[in-house]
Write a structure and sequence with these properties.
The complex is a heterodimer of chains A (333) and B (296). Chain A has two domains: 214 residues, P-loop containing nucleotide triphosphate hydrolases (Rossmann fold, 3-Layer(aba) Sandwich), CATH 3.40.50.300; 67 residues, Alpha-Beta Plaits (2-Layer Sandwich), CATH 3.30.70. In chain A, strands 5-7-8-3-9-10 form a six-stranded mixed beta sheet, sandwiched between helices. Chain A is an alpha/beta fold and 333 residues long. Chain A contains twelve helices and 14 strands. Chain B has 296 residues and is mainly alpha-helical. Chain B has one domain. Chain B is built from 13 helices and one strand. In chain B, helix 4 runs antiparallel to helix 11. The chains are: A alpha/beta (333), B mainly alpha (296). At the A-B interface, helix 2, helix 3 and strand 6 of A face strand 1, helix 2, helix 5 and helix 13 of B.
């Protein structure tokens, strides 16, 4: 698996080549001058919090949305060219097949849209729907609907597969089976681009992670590189070290007085964002400092982003606005 | 699965020079599909299967004209008009014409609006499926259901009511009814693309009943209040009705039936064709509006 993160090279062939890709809704910039080169055979995760512009990006790469500015080529052609669509499969959010068809009938219908297709049995097997093949679509559960969406996406044996938040409705076991199938496709040299707001999922699957927030690429690299950037722990503790001194500790990305604590208290509870809580605690203990009421938790991605993007501004975690691009998009459509 | 087909495929029609035309990486399990006609056949099959499983459709659209004929046409079977046409035959024509308009509004209007609302049409656009296949399958599918309506109504009339049919006139009538299904499809498509998916069903019902009454499908036009009867000649469905009655019976009997034919057949044909083309353009505009909106 060749992973050449963000190499803007124009000599190696690319499955996707986007430059300056921009989508604006009025004053709001959902996707902001995105440059993207995806190499054949890559499994790429687009990671970002809700409203980061993931879906909008995927829909532009699919040719379903027209960029306000910039250009996209998929397999060297326009994304909405018939030749391109014959090689692309997509699992989109919010799309359901005709309810009175059975699972097998819907899959077979979509197979016939493509110049080449996997066999019906094979598709149902890969999507773990063999037992549900005779069920009407109206009777499917949310997770089964999601698997059907996957089945429809892979029906045409695509060289490039887009998966927009594919595991949102799946339970843990179904997720596991799902990713196993995706890996199998990748093993055939297929290129896979999926969006997620789950860091662990991106880490487990992708060989390249593109971190976006507010329509901009914040980081682009291997899962290890991204984890080092994003994976933050939240340490809550009471200590005699001051906020400013603590913020100067290596690996510490942010320190705040816990909400509800009075800033004037002698030792208020502090909330520390750090990639290396072990180092932090080791230093505190080594220095003989007070450490009590200690908790260490994983920082959710949203909070991590806030510390990553606005590291200097110390925005409160609650400041994630309701007017994020995806909200606007929904109300506009 | 054909190896030859696999090497023949790569999308060489692209016009770029970026060297990004990576070869197709087919799975060993993949096989070549039958192409555009195969797409159309699959689409038609899905259309027939899904429609025939929706009770609202089978009962509301296909069965209702037959039931209405049984209730109102059958009791009049055997009554002869001056030219010798059986009133049962006239009612067969009326109820079938009603069925055709109902098919147009509900298959093309409400049905398409539903698939549009559920995101299915959007998903189809992400595939290489040529969109004409979708529309053609809808039209061909509804011709099949129209055939069922005609067959059912005819069976009740001919077998249940012993209504005598003139073979040539019956054949002409059936052809006009089938042509009407195609002609009014664009009216339905316009409905589907110009109203919000959830409103389409209500609007469909709102438009459909007045159209049927004003076109004389339920009562002969001379029994309608004057004001309403004056509106009728401005409705394409009224002209369609005139064509249908003129096909099933001689002018003398059409007049006796109360349908007061005015103008030549060409005027009626003109109205129906104008409706087909006019609504066709409207539907196309709606379809394009939808495309550009979705791309926003």
């Amino acid at each position: 698996m060749t992973s050449t993160p963000a190499s803007g090279s124009t000599t190696t062939p690319a499955v996707i080549r986007a430059s300056g890709l921009t989508k604006r809704y009025g004053d709001l910039v959902a996707v902001d001058a995105l440059d993207l080169v995806i190499a054949p055979g890559d499994i790429v995760a687009i990671l970002g919090p809700n409203g980061a512009g993931k879906s909008t990006t995927i829909e532009m790469l699919l040719g379903l949305r027209t960029p306000t500015a910039g250009e996209v080529r998929v397999f060297g052609d326009a994304p909405n060219a018939k030749a391109t669509r014959a090689r692309v499969g997509a699992m989109l959010q919010e799309s359901s097949a005709p309810e009175s068809l059975t699972v097998a009938e819907a899959v077979d219908l979509v197979r016939h849209y493509y110049p080449f297709a996997l066999s019906l049995d094979d598709i149902l097997d890969r999507a773990d729907l063999s037992e549900k093949r005779g069920n009407r679509i109206a009777q499917l559960s949310g997770g089964q609907q999601q698997r059907l969406n996957f089945a429809l996406a892979i029906a045409g044996d695509p060289d490039l597969l887009f998966l927009d938040e594919p595991t949102a409705a799946l339970d843990v076991e179904a997720r596991h089976l799902f990713w196993e199938q995706v890996r199998g496709l990748a093993a055939h040299g297929k290129t896979i681009l999926f969006s997620t707001h789950n860091l662990a999922e991106a880490d487990a699957l992708a060989d390249r992670v593109i971190l976006i927030n507010r329509g901009r690429v914040i980081a682009d690299g291997t899962p290890e590189q991204i984890k080092a950037t994003v994976a933050t722990r939240t340490v809550r503790l009471v200590t005699d070290v001051g906020v400013a001194a603590l913020a100067a500790f290596p690996g510490v990305r942010g320190v705040e007085v816990a909400p509800g604590e009075s800033v004037g208290a002698t030792h208020p509870t502090l909330v520390v964002q750090t990639a290396t809580p072990e180092d932090l605690l080791a230093r505190l203990f080594a220095g003989g400092h007070l450490v009590s009421q200690l908790t260490v938790t994983d920082t959710d991605l949203e909070t991590a982003f806030i510390h990553l993007v606005g590291a200097t501004t110390q925005t409160a975690p609650t400041a994630t606005p309701d007017t994020t691009p995806e909200h606007v998009m929904e109300s506009a459509s | 699965m054909s190896t030859a087909g696999r090497t023949a495929y790569p999308a060489d029609s692209s016009t770029t020079d970026s060297g990004d035309r990576t070869p197709r990486r087919l799975s060993p399990e993949a096989s070549r599909m039958p192409g555009a006609l195969g797409t159309l056949a699959a689409q038609l099959r899905a259309e027939l299967l899904s429609s025939s499983r929706v009770p609202e459709y089978v009962v509301g659209v296909v069965a209702v004209p037959i039931i209405l004929f049984t209730m109102f046409g059958l009791p009049n079977a055997g009554v002869k008009l001056p030219g010798g046409t059986d009133v049962g035959a006239m009612m067969f024509a009326s109820m079938s014409a009603y069925g055709v308009v109902s098919l147009a509004i509900f298959t093309f209007g409400v049905g398409v609006a539903d698939e549009r609302g559920k995101g299915w049409l959007r998903r189809m656009r992400a595939t290489p499926m040529p969109f004409w296949a979708y529309f053609v399958a809808k039209v061909v599918g509804s011709l099949a259901f129209c055939g069922l309506i005609l067959l059912g109504t005819w069976a009740v009339a001919a077998l249940g009511g012993k209504v005598p049919f003139d073979g040539v006139r019956l054949a002409q009538t059936v052809l006009i009814l089938l042509a009407g299904t195609v002609a009014f499809s664009t009216m339905g498509f316009s409905l589907a693309y110009w109203f919000r998916p959830k409103a389409a069903s209500a609007i469909g019902n709102l438009v459909f009943l007045p159209l049927s009454f004003l076109s004389g499908f339920f009562f002969p036009l001379d029994q309608l209040p004057d004001v309403l009867a004056k509106v009728a000649p401005y409705l394409p469905t009224y002209h369609f009705g005139q064509l249908v009655w003129s096909a099933i019976a001689p002018a003398q009997d059409v007049i006796a039936f109360g349908a007061h034919p005015e103008g030549s057949a060409w005027v009626h044909v003109g109205w129906v064709l104008a409706s087909f083309v006019g609504f066709g353009l409207l539907a196309r505009a709606g379809y394009r509006r939808e495309l550009s909106r979705a791309a926003q």
